[in-house]
Amino acid sequence: MNNVSIGKITGIVIKEVKLKEADKIITIFSKEMGKVQLYATRAQNIKSPFLAGTQLFTYASFIYSSKNSINFLNQISIINGFEKIKFDIEKIYYAMYFLEFLDKSVELEYPGKMMFEFIVNTLYTLDGAKEDVKLIRAIYELKMISLLGYTPEVTSCVKCDKEIEGDNYHFSFEDCGLLCEKCIEPIDKAIKLNKTTVYAMQYIIYIELNKIFLFTLTPEILKELRLVIDGLIKININQSFRTLDFLNEI
Ligand SMILES: [Zn+2]
Q: Which string of DSSP letters, residue by residue, matches 45-96?
């Protein structure tokens, strides 16, 4: 079976693996097919037309031909190379972490049109960001956790479904959501949360994607949000991220 079929996808390069002979295998997160791998012949060669377009973070359309279950890259047309990210060491580490998070969370051909829109939106926001990169990270992680199907219950009590009264917000990692005063048991390791932290979580999970980055938080609230997100990642994603070591050093 040597049939060759031609395809076109629009996506972001989320991983690159350099091979001998200057070849590369790149992983794309695409609008059409989710996560896909392409074989880029001689892409590391300085004169290669694939040199720029096969680098991490590149947002482009890719034409490829499939032969014997391998997708060979034929042509790239770059939409955005996110140059401002590439010239800012802190932003590079954040972007690398976002891509590693995505790559490790989904299988090949995982269908994720909304996830695709979100990663594009996140990179544009990071590219143009002046500050608040820590907030961009928190928003990215919580929304990804939610898109991956691990949405925590942040609107009512996860056990009895009742609205939380007053400002008594307690979050249980074990139950993955808020607990009302009646449902908290002494053995629960629920943490008390500020109302604003809960509002921020509701906003991130339920607002339309084009508005998701349009808010700020005080450092105290961001710290609390960080605590909740770290717990959710540990429980639901359970991966170690190489790029986080860099991030934690800066
Ligand atoms: Zn309850």
A: STT-TTTTTTSTT-EEEEEEEEETTEEEEEEEEEEE--HHHHT-HHHHHHHH
Cα(183)–Cα(190) distance, rounded to whole angstroms?
11
The alpha carbon of 166 and the centre of ligand 1 are apart by a number of angstroms equal to 13
Q: pLDDT tens-digit profile of 39-98? A: 999 999 989 999 889 999 999 999 999 998 899 999 999 999 999 999 999 999 999 999
User: Would you state the CATH architecture of domain 85-152+190-249?
Assistant: Up-down Bundle (1.20)
Query: Is residue 121 within 8 Å of residue 211, measured between CB atoms?
Result: no
Using the mean position of ligand 1's atoms as its centre, give its distance from the Cα of residue 161 in Å.
6
Q: Which H/E stretch holds residue 26?
A: strand 24-30
Q: Report which of 33, 82, 84 is spatially closest to residue 56, judged by C-alpha positions.
A: 82
Residue whose token pair is 């034929």: 74
Distance 202 CA to ligand 1 centre (A): 18
CATH 2.40.50.140, domain 5-80, yes or no = yes
- The single residue listed with the structure tokens 């590391």 is 44
